[in-house]
Amino acid sequence: MKNKAKLKEICFDGLFFIIGSFIYAAAVNMFTAPNHIAPGGFTGASTLINYLTGLPIGLGMFLLNVPLFIISYKMFGKDFIIKTLVATLLLSVVIDITANFYPIYTGDKLLAALFGGVCSGGGIALILFRGATSGGTDILAKLLRIKWPHISMGTVIMIFDLMIVLVSGLVYGTLESVLYAFATTFTASRTIDYVLYGRGYGKVLTIFTDNPNDVSSAITSEMGRGVTILDAKGAYTGEKKSMLICAVRTNEIAKITKIIKQHDSEPFIIVSEASEVFGQGFKPLRKKDN
Asked: In a 3-state reduction of DSSP, which class is residue 229?
């Protein structure tokens, strides 16, 4: 039964990775690259390299990720990297093999930027849904946080994306490319959040687990999120368990859920909507002037 469940999980992973890769490739080959739009991340960097040298975008993405995969394997082990390696390799291959397959849209650049963001965000969301990432800035941010743990992953990713977008203006020689790239990046991030988690700003996770110390330590060390541990008792069974409460951003739920399952095979998780979250790591709580 365990092997059957594992095989089923692998099949679902592969299906979501393939569908997500083709959707993401449509964003690159139909909308962004033909219209000189280089969104943030390694995709944007590879798009610029392709424009300057002719190196295929997918191949460029994978080559940029190779050093990060090697370092990550040494730092975090194979369990962390294997799904991301598979997803990134598949994504790179699909982008290159469909480069001459998808029709190219060269109409309104604003539409190209928006639909490029929707497709790229939708494709990445399917990959994130199965507990992987597309590599690139996600791995880079995790590595940098080892030396500078006070810097959030979101900040690192935002800075790198901003650098790529600004460089695209120099490479393409036009301010329009920068503005359209910002539109694509913003649309992609909103699409990911909407597909995975709905429209909320933040979420509150309520976790019932038999391994509260391991789960809370992993969430704190790997995601930098605080966790509150409370004693709980089931009304029906009378069984004592621990209840963990954790406030997170919407785009962190998939990763935290994966972390929880690594330390508890049968957790009970409730995801609640949080319209606003104040405090460290979220919105600052400012005192009003008297």
From this structure: strand
Nearest CA to 262 among 226, 219, 229?
219
Q: Is 207 helix (H, G, I), strand (E, B) or coil?
A: strand
Handedness of CA 126, 131, 135, 139 (dihedral sign): positive
Dist CA 213 CA 168 (whole Å): 46
Q: What is the pLDDT of residue 251?
A: 66
Enumerate residues 6+ apart whose C-beta is below 8 A from 253: 196, 197, 203, 205, 271
Write down the H helix ranges in 103-174. 109-129, 137-147, 153-172
Q: Which of 144-148, 199-203, 207-211 has the highest mean pLDDT?
A: 207-211
Whether the predicted pLDDT of 261 surpasses 60: yes
With beta carbons less than 8 A apart as the criterion, state whether 218 and 251 touch: no
CA distances from 55 to 45, 50, 94, 119 (A): 12, 5, 15, 23
Q: Give, as one character, the DSSP assignment of residue 31.
A: I
* CA distance readout (Å), 172 to 31, 162, 214: 16, 16, 49
Tally of CB atoms within 10 A around 246: 21
The CA angle 17-271-87, to the nearest 5 degrees, is 15
Beta strands in the chain (DSSP E): 202-209, 228-233, 240-249, 268-274
pLDDT tens-digit readout, 123-136? 888 887 776 777 77
pLDDT band at residue 183 under the 50/70/90 scheme:
very high
